[in-house]
Amino acid sequence: MENLQDRSDVAQIGTENIIEIQGLTKCFGKQKEIVAVDSLTLNVKKGEVFGFVGPNGAGKTTTMKMLIGLLEPTSGTGRVGGFDIVREIINIREVTGVLPEPAGFYDNLTARQNLRFYAKLYDIKEDVREKRIVELLDMVGLNGAIDQKTGGFSTGMRKRFGLAQALINDPDILFLDEPTSGIDPKGAQMMRDLIKQLSREKNVTIFLSSHAMSEVEEICNRIAVIEKGNLLAVGSVEELRDMVREKEGVQYILEISNIPLQDVAGKLSDIDGVHETYARNGMLYVHADAGMRAEIANNVKLMDGTVSRFEEDRMDLQKVFLKLIKS
Length: 327
Ligand SMILES: Nc1ncnc2c1ncn2[C@@H]1O[C@H](COP(=O)(O)OP(=O)(O)OP(=O)(O)O)[C@@H](O)[C@H]1O
Fold this sequence. Notes:
- The chain is of the alpha/beta class.
- The protein has 11 helices and 14 strands.
- It is about 35% helix and about 30% strand.
- Helix 3 crosses helix 4 and helix 8 (about 235-250) packs across helix 11.
- Adenosine-5'-triphosphate (ATP) binds next to strand 2 and helix 1.
- Adenosine-5'-triphosphate binds near residues 28, 34 and 59.
């Protein structure tokens, strides 16, 4: 699986913060009793593909809406592309593109007519506009449907068309709310490839929310995890994994010969920092604090055991996420 965070050749990530959020808060209700986003502080660097994940109702959409000027924060501040999210919404609209969930179009208009309409809102000149419409529809694989009404588009086509629409003003920053939800695996892969292509070839900064952890793991350089409006963690998959390793320990898997696994399990479970040991299918599983590898190996050696395999169960983002939200 291609992973952007390991590939500095893919995205040119700058040092400059293109999105800055300070203590951002949004409350709903007469008494402001529903705290949807609670003092959120985070930065996104230019060129990053930034994943925003959290359970249902965590506050992802509300945050995005505040960042693009659709909702006014209750308190806190934010800047997008250098512009203030309350006072400079018009400027933000100029430099951003948005794929909302669900995406809405004028369904009785064709793909070309829809894009023409949005292009006019941005005052894009006719010659540039017509060329861009064809290029964008080509990019998202919808050129064959250019003169079809969007009302007849499938869910996958609507998502891709929504991406073309979000790109009509050639934005520096793209906000994508669940860009692959409801579309089939092939369509989802195409969407991910497009997102990677935009990052790689156009250096567009992408801020996306998703419930698909494998997708976020595949395409995001960094990820913020939120729950009940609060930021739980932010970092690359590797950094988030390390946070969980430090907090919850790791699972080692050992293949040992010469001595009975039950004996090793018993001996290792007496060591400080080893939380659980059990043998299954000829392998020994050891749940221990991170960094106990050498000590475990030594103890097996002292018992005259031979270790032929010693692996750490590498948590994927799905596991990391579940551990972060339950701790
Ligand atoms: N207009 C509103 N009025 C009252 N409460 C709202 C409003 N909009 C959102 N909320 C509440 O704010 C919280 C955060 O909602 P939000 O839609 O931002 O979550 P989310 O992380 O995008 O969820 P999902 O993954 O389900 O899309 C939820 O408890 C939601 O019910």
